[in-house]
Specification:
This protein has nine helices and eight strands. The chain has helices spanning 30-42, 50-57, 77-90, 121-129, 149-167, 183-191, 225-233, 237-240, 242-271; strands at residues 9-12, 46-48, 67-74, 95-98, 133-136, 173-175, 196-201, 214-218. Helix 1 packs parallel to helix 3 and helix 1 crosses helix 7 (225-233). It is found in: Secreted.
Length: 272
């Protein structure tokens, strides 16, 4: 069986009743998250991981009747406390993209500025053992498309190494911090050994979608259950996400300009 025409890949962040102010808009209340899982089950959806989706896209696995991939970015502590028990109770799975330098006990590897309380390494291992796929979300949550090449390579290689050492297996999938990437970043991701990388996009992933810019659909604090149902059914994505898509398109132009100026400045210093 070939991969389905489209697969909704949902992007979550915090799942918390009282998240930090910095994560509030992209958080989901635990009760609403439970209701979303109930809707998926009632409508016959089967949750899959990003790794399973990648295998389906490569023709190495058979797709379930109505697949949906759940992804969770950053690695907030509430994933272990709120999301994991609800996923387990529903017989559901997902992919947790971890910012390794943000972890609560990152120690000498600490990097970046966490927005809320983060998972510990032992909790990441518990999620992995419970059947949640763990992926990388860079090391410090940097804007990867703005980094020089050496820093970019480190942001990609370090979390992959740390996660493999701690979990005892390879971690071949990545989600871009902020959803930002570029052709240069995607080449570096492939060179670092990742087999798939998730962006945002806010449209469903068709079989021809770039495996190093896998589009995801944002689930936010104000995503009502009716809207959530339309999102997973593939209804009216252009209408639901028109604001997000417009902002993304405009900001992409700005980011490309910044990146070009940054590289030009670095080249100028190298010649001086």
């Amino acid at each position: 069986m070939t991969a389905p025409v489209t697969v909704p890949v949902l992007m979550y962040h915090a799942v918390a009743a009282r998240p930090a102010d910095a994560t509030y808009g992209l958080s989901v209340h635990p009760d609403r998250f439970a209701a979303q899982l109930e809707l998926l089950a009632a409508e016959g959806f089967t949750t899959i991981t990003v790794g399973e989706l990648a295998a389906i896209r490569r023709g190495e696995a058979t797709a379930p009747e109505r697949p949906v991939a759940l992804t969770f970015d950053d690695g907030y502590a509430d994933f272990h406390r709120e999301a994991l028990p609800r996923l387990s109770a529903a017989g559901a799975t997902g992919t947790l993209f971890v910012t390794t330098g943000w972890l609560d006990d990152a120690g000498p590897e600490t990097a970046g500025h966490p927005l809320d309380r983060m998972l510990s390494w032992s909790q990441v291992a518990e999620c992995d053992a419970a059947g949640i796929e763990v992926g990388a979300h860079s090391h410090s949550h940097a804007q990867l498309d703005q980094l020089p090449d050496a820093a970019l390579r480190d942001e990609l290689a370090r979390p992959r190494r740390l996660l493999a050492e701690r979990l005892g297996h390879e971690v071949p999938h990545l989600a871009y911090p902020y959803g930002y990437s570029s052709a240069r970043v995607r080449r570096a991701v492939a060179d670092a050994g990742y087999r798939l990388a998730a962006s945002v996009g806010n449209f469903a992933a068709g079989p021809g979608a770039d495996g190093y810019a896998l589009p995801r659909l944002t689930v936010a604090r104000d995503t009502g259950l009716d809207t959530f149902g339309r999102v997973v059914r593939g209804e009216h994505h252009a209408r639901i996400y028109w604001k997000e898509r417009t902002l993304t398109a405009g900001y992409l132009v700005v980011r490309r300009g910044r990146s070009a100026l940054s590289r030009s400045a670095l080249a100028g210093r190298a010649r001086s």
